[in-house]
Amino acid sequence: VNLILLTADELDDDRVARLTGARAGHVCRVLDAAIGQEIRVGILDGPIGRGQVISRTAGEVLVRCTFVPSPPPVPAVDLLLALPRPKVMRRLWAQLAALGVGHVVLTNAARVERNYFDAHVLSPGCYEPLLVEGLQQARDTRLPRVSIHRQFRPLVEDRLDELCGPGLRLIAEPGVPAGIAETVADRDLPRVLLAIGPEGGWNDFERQLLAARGFYAVSMGTRSLRSDTACVALLALVHDALRSREGRRI
Amino acid sequence: VNLILLTADELDDDRVARLTGARAGHVCRVLDAAIGQEIRVGILDGPIGRGQVISRTAGEVLVRCTFVPSPPPVPAVDLLLALPRPKVMRRLWAQLAALGVGHVVLTNAARVERNYFDAHVLSPGCYEPLLVEGLQQARDTRLPRVSIHRQFRPLVEDRLDELCGPGLRLIAEPGVPAGIAETVADRDLPRVLLAIGPEGGWNDFERQLLAARGFYAVSMGTRSLRSDTACVALLALVHDALRSREGRRI
Questions:
Q1: How many CA atoms lie within 13 A of A207 on its CB side?
Q2: Which whole-number Å values give the CA distances from A126 to A84, A90, A122, A131, B228, in the listed order?
Q3: Fewest CB within 10 A of the end CB: N or C in chain B?
Q4: Smallest CA–CA separation between B157 and chain A, in Å?
Q5: Chain A contact set for B2 (CB, 8 A)
Q6: pLDDT in tens, A221-239
């Protein structure tokens, strides 16, 4: 944990927040922050700042917070992901938030098993704490939006524009010649929507529908990767490509 | 599993291998391969090929194999990794093999807890099956070499040249200006050794020693990531940078 996240309603009129439970334990036992010491804090979907410890008792820490004026930007990458099996999805949540994803759009596909949609790991009570854990690791406050779609075709045909807005659309396909860095560099669009298929791959219908909706095929080589490894690797490449493009503008 | 790995001594003089246990189960239940059907096979640290199913009974599958002449290349990236906590290391093994690492060099550091070195996850009996799982996912045969070092300074001063040979040395540091793609593109060295610190970071002594031994600091942005996320993200960036450089040569 490199940042303690608060919700806006946890601050009183003097900008003092009362931490209990795991967050208080982290401040006392891991950081061992003394009275007067400052720790990094952030407001969920709001700004980052510093919290001065003003009281510290068993199980409760009071911090007075000051924040920088503007919140961090919403990550410029959205993810359209064929729902992986629950064990893999569980491992992914914190990593997605840590790497930075604006909107996580989970979808069905021919090679996704229907019962994955009934998994506990798709309930907000399960995934929200994991997303917060990832944000606290990466010192971000922007909670990824999450939407879950049991029908691929209506999602791609009717909903994607509204969910993710305009931007560069990429579909990861092992072995195609186009790389991510070059493709992002050549197209001056502020946001990227990255589609990652199930471990067995998209089927022909799905591939054609995504191509018809503007998804451009890129690859990171010929190796076939597990969904969680592929997501982390591809998100890192897209973010790096966006950073490189920004760098070249300066 | 996208490839069934065999050891060389599992093949008889007619290049027939007898699969039992999990591999037989995969051929029968997941692939449901009939007599005469071909499946992808590979020899550990040897070539890739096809295996024709010639017999299939409860718990045993016989496949007759033919191989392409030359084995896949050893991955061009080595990893110097400050040992993460056992739970994170366990998740990493298969992912490292899937992404492709020539040599995994695990080291102590000031911010690594000593007792991590006693973990079961560092015994070959634990990690080798996980590495094989990653290779079978990625259709590779090159088992990463693994070495484990309880002393950072003698490793870096005396052993790294012999363990990893000459190459570009990179150290990942959040927030430094140099990117991985540009750094790899500018230096025409065939191999890369990538150093990734503990979650609390290298200390000043470690950083200076690595710099003195030729490690060049690069970053993938300012976000601080868990060791497993950082390894997957950074290995993906280094491999992609090497691929891009090769592409530009053609």
A1: 11
A2: 16, 9, 7, 9, 21
A3: C
A4: 31
A5: 224
A6: 889 999 999 999 999 999 9
Q: Does A26 touch chain B (CB under 8 A)?
A: no
Is B212 in the A-facing interface, judged by CB distances under 8 Å? no
pLDDT at A250: 47
CA dist B75 and B192 (Å) reads 10
Which residues 68-97 on chain A approach chain B with CB closer than 8 angstroms? 91, 94-95
Residue B220: Cβ within 10 Å count = 25
Residues of chain B with pLDDT under 70: 248-250
Structure tokens at B106: 């695990």
| Cα B88 to Cα B249: distance, rounded to the nearest angstrom | 38
- Are the CB atoms for B88 and B47 separated by under 8 Å? no
Residue A223 and residue B95: Cβ atoms within 8 Å?
A: no
Which residues of B fall within a CB distance of 8 Å from A239?
A: 220-221
Nearest beta carbon to residue B95 from set A2, A229, A239 = A229
Residue indicated by tokens 């919140």: A71
Secondary structure (3-state) at A68 = coil
Q: How far out from the chain centre does Cα B87 lie? A: 18
Give phi and psi for B107, each to the nearest 5: -135, 155
What six digits make up the tokens of B100? Answer: 């492709």
The pLDDT value given to residue A79: 98
Residue A135 has what pLDDT? 97
* Low-confidence spans in chain A with pLDDT less than 70: 248-250
Q: Locate the DSSP E strands across B68-167.
A: 77-82, 103-107, 145-149
- Confidence (pTM): 0.95
At B64 the pLDDT is: 97
Question: Which residue in the block uniquely carries the two structure tokens 């246990």?
Answer: B21
The pair of structure tokens assigned to A56 is 């510290």
User: What are the backbone angles phi and psi of residue A62, rounded to the nearest 5°?
Assistant: -105, 130
Q: Are A198 and A227 in contact (CB under 8 A)?
A: yes
What helix, strand, coil percent values describe chain A, rounded to 5? Answer: 40, 25, 35
Among A94, A139, A237, whose Cβ lies nearest the Cβ of B237? A237
Spatial contact of A71 and A141, defined as CB atoms under 8 Å apart: yes
